[in-house]
Amino acid sequence: VSASLDRTLKVWQLGASTANFTLEGHEKGVNCVDYYHGGDKPYIISGADDRLVKIWDYQNKTCVQTLEGHTQNISSVCFHPELPIVLTGSEDGTVRVWHANTHRLESSLNYGFERVWTICCLKGSNNVALGYDEGSILVKVGREEPAVSMDASGGKIIWAKHSELQQANLKALPDGAEIRDGERLPVAIKDMGACEIYPQTIQHNPNGRFVVVCGDGEYIIYTAMALRNKAFGSAQEFVWAQDSSEYAIREASSTVRIFKNFKEKKNFKPDFGADGIFGGWLLGVRSVAGLTFYDWDTLDLIRRIEIQPRAVYWSDNGKLVCLATEESYYILSYDAEQVQKAKDANSVAEDGVEAAFDVLGEVNESVRTGLWVGDCFIYTNAVNRINYFVGGELVTIAHLDRPLYVLGYVPRDDRLYLADKELGVVSYQLLLSVLEYQTAVMRRDFTTADRVLPSIPKEHRTRVAHFLEKQGFKKQALAVSTDPEHRFELALALEDLNVAKALAQEANNPQKWSQLGELAASTNNLQLAKECMQRAQDYGGLLLLGTSAGDENLVKTLGESTLNEGKHNLAFLSYFMLGDLNKCLEILVNTGRL
Q1: Measured over all CA atoms, what is the biggest interatomic distance in the chain, rounded to whole angstroms?
Q2: WD repeats: which residues (predicted)?
């Protein structure tokens, strides 16, 4: 297709010298033209000196839409290859972003770089390059996170490829398929049909029976298996409650509506507005004043918190919650009993129940996506690492070579599943037994911990022991650890001389004997201290021990052994302490020190 200052567009066939047809409609010269990249619409877009942008159907040879708004000549037009948007640039210095389906103006960008001359998109990326008189700018449009969700059972994944919904079944992996950490899984993909809206987010409800697709200011709830439409409506945002039959939507920045069994139950206007809502055990509303939690059933205020999180993640039992901001995240415990007591006593303050939440930890890392398994919060961060937080300890599972987004954890597989931007599914091993053990320890439930311990492979037990040590349970850590170095350190810390001696004998390391000797001396076990110092060849320590204890035989033996080894200073000192002046004189003569 070609554009010309003669006010027309011409569509050509390669090899032919005459145009197939001509599109007329602009009143002034046409400067730019682009084809629609998808296969579902036969569209061409053009921009001209008449300050108009026109979208053409090249099969019907008609103009389907005219976009007005620029105040100077149009210099560049572009259909985005991934997102449902049209980008137009003009000599008025603005780049306008239009919705490709509704043709509504979504945004106008003006960076003060004078006239716009070129717009370029990169397939597979959300980055857009803009060229101006005064320089060039790279901007990011849309969401980086792919529209994808995995059901609660860990069997099926639904994702959107443009407007098409597809399903992958993890239970149907080929027989004998070798699953390695970080490698793409050979999942079979099944087409489920087109969605009426362009999906920006997809989210299963907690029991996995329904899935909601959101985009273009609308939402549609489908059955997860057959993709049958159950409910739809207008909303800027949609969240599920922990009760799978309940959900909330946000309309503009003022009204929140709550639905149960697809029927509206309540609606309210938060005091400080609503620029974001969060689902889970409590309904969270973000505003300029911070985050406010409400009870789903009564809409009673539970607590106001002066944090503006980007995401809120609740644990399965509702006792822990992660508030993730742009720069860091906070782990809080939630006490429903304290809330009920405050309600019963009619002592709920203006900011809610102060005792409802306790801060357990703050970590200066940006959470990209995350989930809870027991009391362990697993997440991917901004520097492409998979970490988990439990009991104040941060454990790194893997370092990634690209951004990945958490789909879910499947206990039967002992694996964490993630997706990349290209909708490739990868997994990493994460033993449920280790997570269960750590969760039981955090809850001080050592009966459960002892029951789970035998199922933890021996190669993972030292990591568990380090966790126990950090929680202050050194005795349990000593019983669990399989690393001799770690066990020796724990035995010293616990002043368990018998275990420490056995480990020192196994290692037969002078440094270990020396450390044990110091501990034995400090605990008045002089016999063991003597043995350790002899094995460590700590002659200085032996001399101090012998003279302090008045052990003449020890000092005499020390004098002989140090003399034989050429340690003349120690030998001289030993004989001097014994009062053997002849031997002292002999040492001085032999060493030429007279």
Answers
A1: 123
A2: 1-22, 23-66, 67-108
Measured between alpha carbons, how far apart are the two ends of the chain, in Å?
107
Phi, psi angle pair for 240, to nearest 5°: -90, 145
Write the DSSP symbol of residue 241.
Answer: B
Could you give all domains of the chain from N- to C-terminal order, each with its CATH number? 2-140 (2.130.10.10), 316-430 (no CATH)
Query: 104-118, 125-139, 336-350, 569-583: which has the minimum mean pLDDT?
Result: 569-583
What DSSP letter does each residue of 361-377 carry, written as one string? Answer: EEE---EEEEEEETTEE
Angle, in degrees to the nearest 10, between helices 484-493 and 461-470 = 20
pLDDT per residue as tens digits for the range 514-558: 787 778 777 777 677 777 776 766 666 666 665 666 666 665 665
Q: What pLDDT is attached to residue 352?
A: 87
Residues 305, 132: Cα–Cα separation, whole Å: 44
The helix (run of H) or strand (run of E) holding residue 337 is: helix 336-344
Instruction: Return d(Cα 561, Cα 534) in angstroms, integer.
Output: 11
Q: Which strands form 393-399's sheet, in the order they lie side by side?
A: 367-373, 376-381, 385-390, 393-399
Phi, psi of 158 (to 5 degrees): -115, 135
**Buried residues in 357-385 as b, exposed as e (16+ CB within 10 A):** beebbebebbbbbbbbbbbbbbbbbeeeb
Strand partners, 229: 222
Report percent pLDDT > 90 for the chain.
Answer: 45
114-122 mean pLDDT: 93
Please determine, for residue 158, whether its predicted confidence score (pLDDT) is greater than 90.
yes
Q: What's the chain's average pLDDT?
A: 86
Nearby residues of 261 by Cβ (< 8 Å), 6 or more positions away? 245
**Mean pLDDT (whole number) for 154-160:** 87
Please name the amino acid found at residue 448: T
Query: Is residue 202 packed enough to be buried (19+ CB in 10 Å), middle (13-18) or exposed (0-12)?
Result: buried
Q: Which two tokens stand for residue 86?
A: 């049209």
Q: What is the SS3 assignment for 576?
A: helix
